[in-house]
Amino acid sequence: MTKTVNDALGRAVVLEGLPRRIVSLVPSQTELLADLGLDQEVVGLTRYCIHPRDWLGRKAVVGGTKKARFEKVEALAPDLILANKEENTQKDVERLEALAPVYVTDVHDLPQSLEMIRAVGALVGRSQAADAMAAEIQAGFEALTPLAQPVQTAYLIWRSPWMTIGADTFIHDMMARAGFHNVFGDQKRYPQFTLEGLAQKSPELVLLSSEPYPFAEPHLEEIAAAVPGARVRLVDGEPFSWYGSRILGSPGYLRGLQSWWSERA
Known about the structure:
The protein has 2 domains: about 1-105, Rossmann fold, CATH 3.40.50.1980; about 150-265, Nitrogenase molybdenum iron protein domain (Rossmann fold, 3-Layer(aba) Sandwich), CATH 3.40.50. It has helices spanning about 25-35, 55-60, 70-75, 90-95, 110-125, 125-140, 170-180, 195-200, 215-225, 240, 250-265; strands spanning about 1-5, 10-15, 20-25, 40-45, 60, 80-85, 100-105, 150-160, 165, 180, 205-210, 230-235. It is globular. By secondary structure, the chain is α/β, with parallel strands linked by helices.
């Protein structure tokens, strides 16, 4: 049965029955498909789709999120390709549409994440599981109480050049829900800054993410020297930026970060 659905960009996506050969170009959504109970239906993914851990070893890898290999996708004969506005390029999406329906998501905050989970679940015939997952995630965040006193926080995602996150990002929304106020919240997307500029923001806390740049212990001293009045901590980037099923654990992770801060305040 032919079905037409609109994706997050309002594009009409025509599906010929339930998808049986899916290529996912989005790590968050690849993991979501697995947690919705799919396996053999997912035939291709990117090299950044590291969850579930074993899929990279037994699924076809079609390139990266920014550069999908057209010929590899074509060889898989997909009947659905999952993409994302931010993580994949418009050029790739337009080219891949010649092979199969491409459903594009767009996620900047928790409500959009829940909407995406439900939409993808409906696409792949797992509506009940997706609805239950979205409800569990919603309940988890409703039980998360923001810190009584917001903490002026900078969240770093890249070095050379230094980059952080603006207000229109999923990471910003995760921080805000726990009471970590983004000192770069007056900007958008992923602004660059200097260490002098960071110091001028007077953050109380600087978080160094594990991704996309792999910040590690040596960087703690570098930032601490530049912003001597701030506490500096390495954090797992996945609970902040993976907007699929991984955020089932985000409230617990954020609660742990709150406790760490409160113990040292």
